[in-house]
Amino acid sequence: MKNLISVVGPTGIGKTRLAIDLAKHFNTEIVSCDSRQFFKEMKIGTASPSEEELAEAPHHFIGNLSVEDYYSIGQYEEDALQKLNELFKNHNTVILVGGSMMYEKAVIEGLNDLPEANAENQEKLQKLMEEEGIEKLQEILKQLDPEYAEVVDIHNHRRLLRAIDVIWQTNKKYSVQIAISQDSRDFNVIRIGIEAPREELYDRINRRVDIMMEKGLLDEVKGLEKFKGLTALNTVGYSELFKYFDGEWDLDFAVSEIKKNSRRYAKRQLTWYRRADDIHYLQLGYSQQGFENLILWIDEQFQK
């Protein structure tokens, strides 16, 4: 069985470094699922890996497009799977990295979307659980979808809630719906996250924006002004500076807005990842020992 190690986490937390360290350890290659780093004209504002970093391990889907190219998430799913098939011919393990939540989902699960959580259903199930215990949820799931009840972690109430909610919404067995999306994935997925106290993460984000400005973000954005109507450029770090060039905002305010919007984006990412129960977390600033422990843990997850 081939293994895909997916490195996730909010913007500015150090995913690039961890992905490179893992790629070097497993002597393998990196596939990016950062939808902003696809564009070659946007290196600084998207914190694309530097030339030095790119030289440490082979990367794919970094700077492979122009902002003028139209590129959909469906197209990316197809391209990324094709690339993985290629890479798996020579490697047992490949690294996926990036904070674009839906792009990671496209690769590891596929895009045939299960419905979002229904608040009413969730409330009803939560109440049942409080009044009659998790056994009640186990019983409901066994009746609705005995196949899924066989394989799910029966003590994980979040998984039970999710499955019952989806079945209620769609009138279809959950086991059938997830089988459709996972059938096409013949590799084992291991998700690794990096976490940090929120204050520390926000400090890192603020500092990173200052570094981008020092590296020449202003010139990069100036050079892209004629493309500012394109979707690729309607993004943090670019839209704020276009307002500065238009005379709407002064520079200090534009930079503080980039920091604020980057923090907001990180908050959305944290909310998204918090909903997952299959991410193994490493603390920011992990030691060599921490990295070695991670490798031991990954080895245990490999499906031979």
UniProtKB/TrEMBL annotation:
Cofactor(s) listed in the protein's UniProt record: Mg(2+)
Binding site for substrate: T11, G12, I13, G14, K15, T16
Binding-site list for ATP: G9, P10, T11, G12, I13, G14, K15, T16
An annotated GO BP: tRNA modification
Alphabetical keyword list: ATP-binding, Magnesium, Nucleotide-binding, Transferase, tRNA processing
EC numbers for this chain: 2.5.1.75
Catalyzed reaction equations: adenosine(37) in tRNA + dimethylallyl diphosphate = N(6)-dimethylallyladenosine(37) in tRNA + diphosphate
Keyword DNA-binding: no
GO function terms (MF aspect): ATP binding; tRNA dimethylallyltransferase activity
Residues the UniProt record annotates as site (Interaction with substrate tRNA): S100
Region (Interaction with substrate tRNA): 34-37
Enzyme class: transferase
InterPro entries: Dimethylallyltransferase, IPT, P-loop_NTPase
Assembly with partners or alone: Monomer.
Purpose of the protein: Catalyzes the transfer of a dimethylallyl group onto the adenine at position 37 in tRNAs that read codons beginning with uridine, leading to the formation of N6-(dimethylallyl)adenosine (i(6)A).
Similarity-based family: Belongs to the IPP transferase family.
Protein name: tRNA dimethylallyltransferase
UniProt organism field: Chryseobacterium joostei
